[in-house]
Amino acid sequence: MANLTPELAALQEEIEGYAREYGLDFFETIFEVLDWKQINEVAAYGGFPNRYRHWRFGMEYEHLSKSYEYGLSKIYEMVINNDPCYAYLLHSNHFVDQKLVMAHVYGHCDFFKNNYFFSHTNRKMMDEMANHKTRVQRYIDRYGIERVEDFLDACISIDTLIDYHAPAITRNRPREILVNEHGDEIVPTVQKLPTSQPYMDKYVNPPEFIAAEQEKLRQEMVHGHKHPQNPERDVMGFLLEYAPLEGWERDILDIVREEAYYFAPQAQTKIMNEGWASYWHSKIMTTRALRDNELIDYADHHSGTMAMGPQKLNPYKIGIELFRDIEDRWNKGRFGKEYTECTNMVEKAKWDRELGLGRKKIYEVRKLYNDVMFIDEYLTPEFCKEQKLFVYSYNLTNEQYEVADRAFAKIKQQLLQQLTNFGHPVISVVDANFSNRGELLLEHQFEGVEIQMDRAREVLRQVYRIWKRPVNIQTVLSGTSKILSFDGTEHKEFRP
Amino acid sequence: MILKIEQDLSRFKEIVRGRIKKDLQKFITKTELIGKKGKDLVSIPIPQIEIPRFIFGDNQKNGVGQGEGEAGEGVGQEGGAGAKAGDAEGQHMMEVELSFEELAQILGETLELPKIQPKGENELSTERPKYTGIGMAGPESLRHFKRTYRQALRRQIASGTYDPKNPIIIPVREDRRYRMWKQQPKQECKAVIIYMMDVSGSMGNEQKEIVRLEAFWIDTWLRSQYSSIEMRYIIHDAVAREVDRETFFHTRESGGTIISSAYKMCVQMIHEKYNPADWNIYPFHFSDGDNWSANDTEECLTLLKNEILPASNVFCYGQVESEYGSGQFLKDLNEKLKDDEQLITSRIPNKDAIPSSIKDFLGKGK
Question: What CATH number should be reported for the domain whose range is B190-362?
Fold first, then answer.
């Protein structure tokens, strides 16, 4: 498949050699050169040349092409988490850009292969996506584009409502047992169905029936009539299991859910992933690959990628600087009890135990952490000060965004808040038989920020298409608990 | 090569167009668009084109940034400009950027307007410069700042005169880089629209509003058909005068009405600048149809028959209804000049009639 020119093929070999020399560990990597239309297409599809048909990809493509045409943005490269790893290069890149991009790509490939949060992803996703495309196309042929598209819209509307930690944890709770005061298990008595003749009893009330009824009663004694028993974060999974769906609908919901889980780790590790790749392109370029006459072009490109604006948090920049900071600290031994408790600032400033553990440490971090953990553990006051970070907020009186605070605690809190659940509200299914009428009740775990009402109403409308019974969401509006409801024709709002 | 994404792209455009078409009547009668004229793109709000998801509301306006500045200092206006929330129940608007060309296309599709056949073979070919590359020589006004500095930096590093501690870069003559251009031929068809409007006392604000809207949409359509278009504006009460666009839409005079004054001026314009052999000429006249005297109407008809109609692709007369006007002029025109194919008349009783009136005027494809 690879369509590299001889120069680029030689370049790939060279860069790959440097990457291995530094100990990066990656799947086989296949580079392809695309023109800007093709690369925009692939980018619109989220990196995959084959995705199911949906208008939002067209919208994304339109957006990307427009910003490219107006010179606002340009995609230099894309990498796909797959085995083999696919990476795309933009045809019009300069040779030095291709060099940089290849070095960057090997960083990503290493991260995909080794970071723990990617360990559950499907490494044959390229094929899987193509299968999804075929399946969706089959449904379109059979049921028509309108119906399939409508249902896809509904599924995509809730594709953020998944349990991001589910792939790593088994959520099936153990069977709970009720005991009486003697410590014996309580076995509920089942009301048998009446029979006119005693010999009919074993036909009318077979043992399997009695056992099933007994289990049901036991569940009710433990939990009441609640279903699900515990709030379910994987709303998509819950609907997949319990919503009254036709076969093709179930399959489409399954497809959208599977893809959502596949993409989740990339959102979970944005800062680390880009930081890691940037760290390595910088290392490889400046120590090995760069030729003298390419220096200025490289510096120009690199600084463009790393630029941060007053209102733009650049994951590349934060990531690379944090990795460098960690490396430096572990090289010099600036960690642990002794260092943190040192009060002599002069001594602290020139602290260097010459441990040389930096490289080993950053490899460990790239293996075990995600963004939330990364920021939580390695963001230091010194780092915030050095990088001139601040929290900004909107000032209503001046009608402008203003620097609000430079305190470390505030910056860290703000960053973590933005990263937790990717800045989405936390929503779970709490009751599938709300009001005892088979209605669905979702709950927004309120943490001080309200959800946007008009969108929430629209999402309810979409969930109704899946659940096919009235749907509700409990949230907090202006300090009071509220339930928003959609019953198929109109929206309502009431107090629980 | 055809891309796979084309299918999704056309589906997306279909959806957008469907939404716009559904609301086209509303757009046509909206005035905000007119203000945006002159730029290439208009943003059109359409409901429900992005996929709704549960998101946080407006009270989350904090973030982390990087840079200098004390607490309380502004951090500039970039970013933070999210989609505006709609106010109506379950409605959130998304702004879709649309070029005037696309807008005209949608208008054309909805009203089933035929493509205009430009008159004559007199296509003029002009040359337009296009920047295509970078060169070593050129006028200072075309100097490429960044390329020049990059070249200077390169030279200074190579020659060892660059000091990272005091990074001053001084380009010399040889470092300068200039934008280069090529002349590219461009086919052009010339067209002129001459708008005439009655601003006499009987034309109220509402009537002017109708004229304004109609003129805007006609303009949009004709622009999509011709690569370059000229516009002239004439207002008249008892006397006619040429004005600029701004005045045309805002003046309110209060004299009597002598329509021939405008027609005379129109004829004069055509004689002076627009040779009918080279130009596609579109005179539009809007009035409430209340002329001063029958004599003047007679004179108008003569002017139309002998001068204006033969020179024009079409002559369009739109009559707005007003409380005071008798509407006699429209009847006169239709009676006396009913055999003339160049004449199109249309009655515009209210805003809602604008689309059908546009169809009257442009539906013939001339």
Answer: 3.40.50.410
pLDDT at B120: 56
Measured from the Cβ of residue B128, the count of other Cβ atoms closer than 10 Å reads: 11
Residue % of chain A over a pLDDT of 70: 95
> Higher confidence at residue B341 or residue B281?
B281
Which percentage of chain B shows pLDDT scores above 70? 77
Q: Where are the domains of chain A?
A: 6-115+269-303, 126-171+232-266, 307-417, 425-494
Q: Which of B1, B3, B5 should be substituted to probe chain A, the one whose Cβ sees the most A Cβ atoms within 10 Å?
A: B5
Q: Name the token pair of B26.
A: 């509303």
Mean pLDDT of chain A: 88
Instruction: Give me the phi and psi of A190, to 5 degrees please.
Output: -95, 135
Among the partner residues B3, B13, B53, nearest to A41 by beta-carbon distance: B3
Most B CBs within 10 Å, among A136, A392, A487, to test the B interface? A392
Confidence (pTM): 0.75
Q: For residue A473, what is the nearest residue in chain B, using CA coordinates?
A: B54
Give the pLDDT score at B125.
65
Q: Which helix (H) or strand (E) holds A475?
A: strand A471-477
SS3 B272: helix
Cβ density class B179-206: b for 16+ within 10 Å, e for less: bbeeeeeeeebbbbbbbbbbbbbbbeee
Q: Are strands B315-320 and B279-287 parallel, antiparallel or unpaired?
A: parallel
Q: What pLDDT score was predicted for residue A133? A: 95
Could A295 and B157 be called an inter-chain contact, meaning their C-beta atoms sit closer than 8 Å?
Answer: yes
CA dist list (Å): B153 to A282, A289, A457, B166, B362: 21, 21, 57, 13, 59
Q: Do A387 and B89 touch (CB under 8 A)?
A: no
pLDDT value, residue A11: 94
Which residues, at least 6 apart from A261, have a Cβ–Cβ distance to it below 8 Å?
Answer: A120, A121, A162, A166, A167
B19 min Cα distance to partner chain A (Å) = 14
Chain centroid to CA B189: 17
Numbered ranges of CATH 3.40.50.410 in chain B: 190-362
Does residue B78 surpass a pLDDT of 60?
no
ipTM, interface predicted TM-score of the complex: 0.83
Q: Checking DSSP bridges between strand A29-34 and strand A85-90, what pairing results, if any?
A: parallel
Please report, as a single letter, which amino acid is at residue B127. E
Annotate A48-63 with DSSP letters as a single string. -S-----HHHHHHHHH
Q: Are A296 and B157 in contact (CB under 8 A)?
A: yes
Strands B63-66 and A389-395, how do they pair?
antiparallel
Whether A403 and B71 lie within 8 Å, measured CB to CB: yes
User: Is the pLDDT score of B39 beyond 60?
Assistant: no
Of B7, B64, B90, which has the smallest distance from its Cβ to A389's Cβ?
B64
Beta bridge partners of B143: B178
Closest-approach residue (CA) in chain B for A158: B53
Q: How far apart are CA A197 and CA A113, in angstroms?
A: 68
Four-residue CA torsion sign, A486, A487, A489, A493: negative
Confidence class of residue B322 from pLDDT cuts 50, 70 and 90?
confident
* pLDDT greater than 70 at residue B58: no
